[in-house]
Amino acid sequence: MRALVKEKPEPGLWLAEQPIPEIGPDDVLVRIRKTGICGTDIHIFNWDEWARKTIPTPMTIGHEYAGEIAEVGANVKRLAVGQRVSGEGHVIGMQSRAARGGRYHLDPETRGIGVNIPGAFAEYARVPAFNIVPLPDDVDDELGAILDPLGNAVHTALAYDLVGEDVLITGAGPIGIMAGAVARHVGARHVVITDVNPKRLALAAEVADILPVDVSREDLKAVMARLGMTEGFDVALEMSGAPSAFDQLLDSVVTGGRVALLGLPAAPTLVDWNKVIFKQLTLKGIYGREMFETWHKMIAMLESGLAVRKVITHRLPAAQFLDGFEIMRRGDSGKIVLDWTA
């Protein structure tokens, strides 16, 4: 089968022939149709410090996917060959207190598909049956291929009650944009998204009814005044990992505000904890998706009108993966979906 492999510990990826994975009794074999390129995959391509410490080589990468079941293990009962599926990219152990208590997303033994174990940028992928999520007919393959990052957006946006609230999102990458769409869908009042990339801000305005602000050109306080906000944002979602964005966020939230943190800084950064303490803020770190409540909620929202398809800006055959990675590395795209059937 064709697979996108991190063959060597150096920058780049290679399209190579690999054996079709053999599954165990509790696994399924998924015939991959569509996959999404993630920021994590860009780190792996670039072979930055995080990738050098984390990624084994050689290994097939990729963790955003949709396809159909080609084979089921002997112990698998609830799934069938031919069923359309996506799946949770975090593979857990079952020994920790969190996992045994059903809080699977908090399991410290979590391993990532396409990060720690072989992934889904291939014509076939081995996935634990526990991780598989069946797709309804009205969630097609390309939406199925971006459910993983949509889940990050949903997990972050729904960390707090947003009904009637004013929401600030720092970082207009695809996940930040989708978080804005979710916030609007569930009833937030004003939703403002900030960035310094005009292309991503334009995409945000196209995808959802949210207000994009280029903070390199426009004062956020002036925007707040124009919206009639007198105290600050009730809820803030930090999606960029940029220290300057977090500083501005702290200045812009109301006293007693709530902050969800998904963006990962490239290096340790200083925080003015006086602002956090004296404003009595609540901070919550977000990683991945709640298994499997986030999956239920995001599929239900898609079925009830949540529209995020426009965040997909490029669709390419898998053989043109290099074009997709270069576009994404330049910051000239939203989500990029690769077609493994082409």
From TrEMBL:
PROSITE patterns associated with the record: ADH_ZINC
Record-linked Pfam families: ADH_N, ADH_zinc_N
Keyword Metal-binding: yes
Keywords carried by this UniProt record: Metal-binding, Oxidoreductase, Zinc
InterPro entries: ADH-like_C, ADH-like_N, ADH_Zn_CS, ER, GroES-like_sf, NAD(P)-bd_dom_sf, Zn_alcohol_dh
Superkingdom of the organism of origin: Bacteria
Keyword Chaperone on entry: no
SMART domains listed in its UniProt record: PKS_ER
Family: Belongs to the zinc-containing alcohol dehydrogenase family.
Listed name of the protein: L-threonine 3-dehydrogenase
